[in-house]
DNA sequence: CAGTGAGTTCATCACGTGATGAGTTTTCGG
DNA sequence: CCGAAAACTCATCACGTGATGAACTCACTG
């Protein structure tokens, strides 16, 4: 139903262990289905779990996501999640980590003439959200910020940290900090309605149109 | 910890009904603790439960709120929640119902000259959110919209319904609908950051200042 | 004053949750 | 080539959840 949910649609019904009377080792007839123990070759399970966690948390939020679901999405046993990440909370915190390129994009957009900064910021914001690799982490943050304390804290840090630094020289005059936080507010609102709540016609509007109108709104707070 | 949580801090350990040794009733020695059965006098339990539900959902969201917690907040048995409202989901839907005065406030603000409509809308929005009687319902909607489908749907309806109707004659020209949805976006963003994520200095800024700057941003989308 | 129905509590169920520990197989440093 | 550490599975636990049904008491109609 959703968009980012590809990862989970693997058939792989259930670990058909086919116990078959075994001796000590699984002398089962069929393909040697590794029962327990380490897998041969290189391992990329840790990242797989984190990726699955990002996807799941992005879709359903913290409370709505069970460790079993994450494990299933990653194709591993649930205990492995604990093995690598300890508690659900600490896994969540790591899933919340934002890719560095988001900061770069925003920072780059803030540079240059003040005149077009509103439009440039909106464009940068949309480009990051439209990128499937950075979306789950952003989605997780915004979706959970409404409920989860740590996620809200992250959102605040990102807003005041990244944005304040980027717009430091751009927004000047009275109440500069307040106006900076309002820019963050507008961007979060945009993400919330366009990507999370899926409000039409905003969700389907093409990038350029959104940039034109919403950029104007940001510019109104930046200027003075 | 939070602000709206007054309702729950009642000591009222146990419903000491003080039945005074009654005749037919359990002639137990101690204070006649109303075990089961209807309470004498008028009953306002139904509304108490709904109010408690609004407060709890507003604080913790749908998943984070248990029926037991709601029942405890309302000071009643958990089974009563089911008795009156059926499932948790249906109780949630009723808790989502917005007071009519919100629509009125927004609609009233949209009337009048186009010039100051941005500021008037922001002021109306803030006044509704700062009113403790309407806050839990709004909080519930915004907090849960990130996760819960029905809440998101409500948010969309409210945005396109109330706002589109109110701003129908005000926003004209190209992409009127899109720009209307952007006004909604800005207002939701404001609520999200000022009241939910509690971003400073936005959260502590006084109403007039917020109205001045943010009103300008709304106006930028309204005009043309 | 009988009796139906609504308000209220208690005890309980089946289930999904996060977490843990024991046991198995591989990798890898010495 | 040995042994410790890492990767991995399985079985289980204790717990909180939403939901249900039986029992009891009051209000209200006739």
TrEMBL record, chains A, B:
Residues 66-85 bind DNA. Residues 43-103 form the HTH tetR-type domain. It holds the Pfam family TetR_C_16. Keywords: DNA-binding. Residues 18-34 have a biased composition (Low complexity). InterPro entries: Homeodomain-like_sf (IPR009057), HTH-type_TetR-like_transc_reg (IPR050109), HTH_TetR (IPR001647), Tet_transcr_reg_TetR-rel_C_sf (IPR036271), TetR_C_16 (IPR041678). Residues 1-15 have a biased composition (Basic and acidic residues). GO terms for molecular function: DNA-binding transcription factor activity; transcription cis-regulatory region binding. Residues 1-44 are annotated as: Disordered. This is TetR family transcriptional regulator. It comes from Streptomyces parvulus.
């Amino acid at each position: 139903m959703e968009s980012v949910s590809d990862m989970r649609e693997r058939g792989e019904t259930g670990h058909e262990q086919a116990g078959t009377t075994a001796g000590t080792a699984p002398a089962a007839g069929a393909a040697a289905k590794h029962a327990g123990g380490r897998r041969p070759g290189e391992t990329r399970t840790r990242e797989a779990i984190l990726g699955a966690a990002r996807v799941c948390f992005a879709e359903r939020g913290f409370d709505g996501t069970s460790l079993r679901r994450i494990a299933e999405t990653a194709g591993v046993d649930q205990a492995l999640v604990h093995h690598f990440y300890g508690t659900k909370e600490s896994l969540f915190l790591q899933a919340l980590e934002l890719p560095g390129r988001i900061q770069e994009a925003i920072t780059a957009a803030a540079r240059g003439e003040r005149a077009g900064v509103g439009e440039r910021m909106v464009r940068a914001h949309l480009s990051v959200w439209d990128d499937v690799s950075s979306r789950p982490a952003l989605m997780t943050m915004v979706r959970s910020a409404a409920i989860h304390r740590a996620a809200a804290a992250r959102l605040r840090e990102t807003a005041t940290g990244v944005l304040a630094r980027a717009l430091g020289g751009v927004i000047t005059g009275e109440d500069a900090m307040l106006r900076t936080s309002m820019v963050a507010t507008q961007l979060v609102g945009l993400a919330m309605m366009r990507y999370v709540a899926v409000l039409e016609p905003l969700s389907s509007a093409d990038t350029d149109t959104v940039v034109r109108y919403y950029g104007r709104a940001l510019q109104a707070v930046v200027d003075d």
